[in-house]
Amino acid sequence: MANTPLTADDNVIDYLAAHERKGLMRFITCGSVDDGKSTLIGRLLYDSKLLYDDQLAALESDTKKHGTQGEKIDFALLVDGLAAEREQGITIDVAYRFFSTEKRKFIVADTPGHEQYTRNMATGASTADLAVILIDARRGVLTQTRRHSYIASLLGIRHVVVAVNKMDLVGYSEKTFREIESAYRAFAEPLGFQSTAIMPLSALDGDNIITKSPYTPWYNGAALMPYLETVNVREEQGDKPLRMPVQWVNRPDLDFRGFAGTIASGTARPGDEIVVLPSAKRSKVARIVTMDGDMQQASADMAVTLTLEDEIDVSRGDIICAGKAPTEQTDQFAAHLLWMAEEKLFPGRQYLLKTANRIVPATITALKHKVNVNTLEHMSGKTLELNEVGFCNFNLSQPIAFDPYADNRRTGSFILIDKRTNATIGAGMIDFSLRRAQNVHWQDLDINKTARANAKHQRPCVLWFTGLSGSGKSTVANLVEKRLHDLGRHTYTLDGDNVRHGLNKDLGFTDADRVENIRRVAESAKLMADAGLIVCVSFISPFQSERRMARELLEDGEFVEVYISTPLEVCEQRDVKGLYAKARRGEIKNFTGIDSAYEAPQSAEIDVDTSNIPAADAADAIVEYLQGKGYLEG
Fold this sequence. Notes:
Layout: H1 8-21, E1 23-31, H2 37-47, H3 53-66, H4 83-88, E2 95-100, E3 104-110, H5 118-125, E4 130-136, H6 143-154, E5 159-165, H7 174-188, E6 195-200, H8 224-230, E7 243-245, E8 248-253, E9 256-262, E10 267-268, E11 273-277, E12 281-289, E13 298-299, E14 303-308, E15 319-322, E16 328-339, E17 350-354, E18 359-371, E19 378-379, E20 389-402, E21 413-417, E22 424-433, H9 449-455, E23 461-466, H10 473-486, E24 491-495, H11 496-499, H12 511-530, E25 534-538, H13 544-553, E26 559-564, H14 568-574, H15 579-584, E27 606-608, H16 615-628
Parallel strand pairs: 1-3, 1-4, 4-5, 5-6, 23-25, 23-26, 24-25, 26-27
Antiparallel strand pairs: 2-3, 7-15, 8-9, 9-14, 10-13, 11-12, 11-15, 12-14, 16-20, 16-22, 17-18, 17-21, 18-19, 18-20, 21-22
Helix pairs in contact: 10-16, 12-13
């Protein structure tokens, strides 16, 4: 019987099937400013014949308008899409491009080199399999080269290509290349990369991009594209235990209840035993449902809906795990943190922590050390600044399910969010749970806060007096306590100066120490409120974040903010302790109102200006507020 000839449709179907079977590699390009990252990607696409005619025409047109390479095509314009990038000749945002060769599919992220945009580089690195780190042959290994290499290692990238670019500008000097190669390998050895290929390139002229260049006969390695097509970078997520964060409970009618999400690792099959965290309820997979019908197996990166054999409670934010290998759960852990905000990190300040499946309030309880990106040595420090990396202890308001980042990048990572602005300010990689967290439990007590307060015929609260030095905080707080004492109420005053003689005697007046000062006082005030007391707290407490943290520690209605809004000029005229005069002469540093900021309350429950009314009248008004709100009844 004669063979049936292939049709055009058959060829297309075969081509698409072969294309679908190709492996996918995600990689990033990174390095310092103007090392040629965008030019390199543009050259890869151009020399690989992966550009359409209209793209080529647009590139030639853009080169005439915005090009920086004279008569040559400016390949960087293929990926530098923002107007600001074209004007400045730098990459600002992360530009993603998909392309495919005969052997492999690629997603490349062109990440910015400027130190200001390191956060964008970390974003691109978080999902990459390989990093192409560019070095300008004229400048060698720079701080940003080291920073990006360290961040790539920290974020789990195990394969690196070091592209020593612009070799044409140093006459293709082997000596220059070998010096850079030696310096980089010496730095990168402790980073634990599985493979490090170092190549001499000219992205602008196409040397060692697709084929070996005749200008570098002394280089025995592969050209860049053949290397990218063949290097083995795949981390088999299917070999890891099942992890699927639940993104949505799919309940279209009474007869169907499924749990939708993207599988982070492992595989799911009907009949597999699973455990749902944090509830620890167990069941088995009944079906794997998709828009195209049921599947018999789903693996990492697939978005599916799982139905279970048992009616157990599963909610958005839960995580479905392999029954024999669930994640850990903890509310205290140690993690590496890349700080991404202009405003410094302060241990003790509360942030929001977002994992793959949950958002919880979090506090950095300790900064164990910072990492010097040039030497990789550990350094002591009290804060993290923009682009710094630290190793920190975290305390959460409730437990989360997690895997160590080294075991699973998707369930071991998190971001930090500023509660006030909702801006992402940090990216973290969990190292391990703090074991003491599993040994510390709440002890049930027979006598509770309500019982203690009722015995004193009052409702507990914290009167938080805030204002500048000399505003009258301590004077008014003292008078309020005297009034309450005369009324037979049970009180205590925590005063800023007094507390620094004992509980906080180890703290100075830097911003970091001020944050810790207020954190300790707020925790102490919470304990006193739990004892049923009315607590007067008299502290400058200059930052809104810490006052908000103190409020959130207490139950609704227990925190009463009293803003002593006396103007700076009046406080300075009083200057009872002579502090303002010393601060003006530079004898006292970090003095609030002079060289350290005071963030005034926006909506305090009580506002008192002692330049307008006597302290005694202010105290009477505060006691009347307490009486009117029922705090003195019980």
